[in-house]
């Protein structure tokens, strides 16, 4: 017979596993597609060849005329090139108020939004802490943002 102290970690691990499984089931799977890029609008928005605009989930980059705008736009343009993998997590709205698709963007297997945050070219925003949908990468984006120096 196991002692109570030996059984406690096993129960805690089982409970944690059950909770994580429930969260994953409720969140549903993310879908991903590769699309051709027409051009980069700014550091957090791209336009597809189909004419559809895509707003990157969970990040914010400087607007035209603000410090860092050109650097963020240039870096995103360099990274995405002609195609990008767009990931649509089931727990996030499909579109924003401007009818742009909300997606994670990946270039060459890299989470482009996270990479922009790491470089100090983007801030972690538009997530559950700002009154928007909580997204699956929110914690990692926020943690990375806290540990990254801004370019401006």
Coarse morphology: globular
Question: Spatial order of the strands in the main sheet?
Answer: 1-2-3-6-5
Quick one: CATH class? Answer: Mainly Beta
Question: Alpha-carbon distance between the termini?
Answer: 62 Å
- Write down the CATH topology: OB fold (Dihydrolipoamide Acetyltransferase, E2P)
Return residue spans where pLDDT drops below 50 for at least 5 consecutive residues. Answer: 12-27
Number of domains: 1
Helix content: 25-40%
If you compute it from the alpha carbons, what radius of gyration comes out, rounded to the nearest whole angstrom? 19 Å
Count of strand segments: 8
Secondary structural class:
alpha+beta
Mean pLDDT: 86
CATH architecture: Beta Barrel
SSE string: HEEEEHEEEHEH
Count up the helices: 4
- Biggest pleated sheet: 5 strands, mixed, barrel
Beta-strand percentage range: 25-35%
